[in-house]
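pasting 8-amino-7-ketopelargonate synthase for the record, 628 residues
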Amino acid sequence: MRASKSAEHISGAEKILNEKELDTNIMALVQRALHHTKGQPDLINIKIETVDAQKIEYIDALPVSSIDVDSPAQGQNILLEYLKKLGLRNSSSIIKKFKETYAMRGAMLLNADTLERLEPNLDRGIRATYMDAEHTALTDNGCCKNHFQEAVILASKVANAPNIIAEICISDDPDYVTGYIASKKFGYVRITKLKKDGCPYGGRIFLYRGRSGDKYECIDYLEKQHVLVRSVPSAPAKKIKEADPWQFVRDDLQERKESFIYREMKEMHSAQCSHVYSNGRDLLMLASNNYLNLSNDPRTKRAAQKATEQFGTGSGGSRLLTGTLPLHTVLEKNIANYKNTEAALLYNTGYMANVGIITALCDKNSVIFSDEYNHASIIDGCRLSRARTVIYRHNDMTDLADKIRKTPCSRGLIVTDAVFSMDGDIAFLPDILETAKKNHLLCMVDEAHSTGVIGKTGHGICEYFGLTAQPDIIMGTMSKALGSEGGYVCGSRLLIDELCNKSRSFIFSTSLSPAVIAAADEALRILAAEPQHVKQLQNNVQYFCDCLKKNGIYSHSDSAIVPINIGDEKQSMQIAQKLFEHNIFILAIRYPTVKKGKALLRAAIMATHTEQELHHAADIIARYVDEK
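structre below
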């Protein structure tokens, strides 16, 4: 039986029956065709053929096991594991072939080693037909489909075909997310989730290993040989968990290595200055966010030592319990004064600040308008808030205004980095503030990479643009130019009171240690009193960009971050390694930090770099970038 609508295949089924069973089964097949999830057909074809009983082949059903997974991604990792058990090294490429099966009525016959497609008709594929259980009866109402039983029958026949080593199947039924991989080697392995609920796509791949010239023997068996399968179970066995629950982690790490996005940590054996000692080398540091070298200033270190002697090494509790020291209160007051706001609140990290602020202020009734290049902490805050998040094109004020116009809301927030952490460019804050005010939206700016870096005296993005108006929410960190650690938020007393009572990453975290707070407060005092450090940083950035330009590399920056575009992930890693061999420490930034194919070298300039060091680094960088 075949059912279709406007020439689109909807359903198919077949039975090998005794003559006396025809009437009941024909009506059952018709009912099944009429009540399919994909819709009601406008054509039902029923074909009846006489079968020579002497030519029927009897085979045993494959042994069945069932693996319970929680997501399609986990299910596909299981598929990859079983393909590797067959000795296949191109497992991921085989899975990607499924997209080519979606429009096919039949299955793909794929050379398991070369990935050559072997079907004579690539649009139609191979149809495995003429098969049934040794004897089955349809259910009483006749219109229900036993997905599992029919799949075992088909998989058992396919596994017995000449030169077939395995079959992979994902159902094209929107209501059926289970699929399988089957082979004589390990039987029929049912995987409970291989696609999302409601997904209409699916297909089959028959994996062939043998000479291409022998494929017709295989095709004839699949399409013409009558087969009855013995001992077909009517329901799947009890679900089991995968034998090695860590295999999906091994597979993920291997795929990252093959894609050149695998990360490893490098130990620093000295303070984060313009030069560091690592892996037995003295290196020019072009990757640190310690832009003003305040983490190694004798005054910040003495402040940390003094605080430790007085208050100990830890704070002993969360801020709302026992973790608020005079040091915390003083630093919050000083940060608020520096940023010209009513109040401030400290967080343990910049990441926790962004997540805590956004989730406290936004919920499922809110809309967040977020720049597409925003930091991962902002992205995660948006996701965790459950608000509707609308992404606008990077620094595109026309697109922002258009998307606000198309997305009316009673509660909304525009959020952006001040200095974008990978490209080093600066948000158009005057336009953003005007747009927020016009549309009655809150405005939040992340100043992690702008405080101590931009503006005449390092006060950040508002000073940079000469603004008197400010964002409603100013977030920043003490771990960049201030050379310590932790995050903060500045704004109205109303904002700070709300966060104290609602921001989970603030409420449920042990507060920052005395040494950290004292060092940050001393660094803030130095920054306010000695703006010449900011001026020196800005001069160094301009000088480094000029040196790059003289070597044929155009890279402009108004911040401390100078991006050098490479593109290919592998090439970016190779160049970074060559620079390391020349005692230059610079990082290759790759997916998922940036988009695939947009890898770059991220140079972070410090106020303490000398012109000689920057000139030398630019020359070496240009040499290897030119070779790519």
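The two ends are 59 Å apart (CA to CA).
The mean pLDDT is 90.
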